[in-house]
Amino acid sequence: MPRILYFFALCNLVIGSGAFVLSGILQPLARELSISVAAAGQVMTAYAVATALLAPVLILLTATWPRKRAIQLALALFTVGNLVSAVAPNLTVLLLGRVLMGAGAMFTAAVSAYAVTLVAPALRGRALSTVFLGMSISYAVALPIGAWLGFAYGWHTPVWLCAIASLAALMAATVLLPKGVVTQSASFAGFKTAARQSAVLRVWLRTLLFFIAIFSVFTYVGPVLLALNAMSTTLLSVVLAIFGTAGVAGTLLGGWANDRFGSLRTIAAQLTVLVAMMCLLPLTQGHLPATIITLVVWGLAGFGLTAPQQSRLVNLSPAQAPLLLSLNSSMLYLGTALGALISGALINSVGLAQLGWVGAPFALAALLTLVFDRSTAVKDHRQTG
Fold first, then answer.
1. Domains of the chain
2. Which of 47, 166, 192, 291 has the fewest CB atoms within 10 Å distance of its CB?
């Protein structure tokens, strides 16, 4: 793999850390701001909606820019958003910071589209999984460390660390990235043609559905785990680290499986496992080892879905990859927002420990979208293999 992909992975580690660190410390955040846990969870919604709406617009506006300048803009927006969040005295200012961070999250789609131009088609899955690896590592490292710091020193502390890391990523990108590189530009006309493909629409729908499923639980992952099993904050951090480590392995596994078996077969297997794990998670209440095993398998399946989904889009319309991938990210974050809203509305009636059952029907619906793609499975396998 080209070395620049590992730098992109490191930047995605910073993006993922800033985006999701608050999900493990919603309780101290809610306590300090004098709001409910459900209201605190909407910091995830603000970030997700901003990414869904603003990132595609920024991708189009920067389509003819050198990649270095577009990446600098993304990291600058993310850095400013982190700084605003770090000094936020109330929920309103915090939400403003999260919106700026969401705009800066255009970075992930921009570098994903860049990455697939640097490798042969047969290696696209592994290239995408390499770039996305940093996002997975953020769950394994930043989320548990952030949870520990947030409970011990207050929620501002991990946010400040994310702001510093984001600034460092911006400075590193300014020094390391080559000047003048311009990738193939997305356009409204080309996008309109690509979006008429039913297969493209199904990829976006599938992404939306399985992220609603995942984030109906993950938005409140700290409180959910505490509801399933009584544990210290240190043990909670350890469990989150185990889950994140499984996610790292799942990301790599998803990229390898995509290139070996094709995206559709890989997605079908992963979604089947994800549905099963979401149904099982509430049944592990009071049994910590069973909870951990379920989370590990969940991580292997859930985190591995991104690379084959992205590869599927690139195969369907390579020329429009930047915008298609950005809109796939929009579906990802819209799913994140809807997952947070749906589970937040049902917490009091369903209970934190049973949120897996809230998300499972959406994961099943995502799996069922593959029924319409069966006829293209062989072609997909040849393209990616």
1. 3-173+184-384 (1.20.1250.20)
2. 192
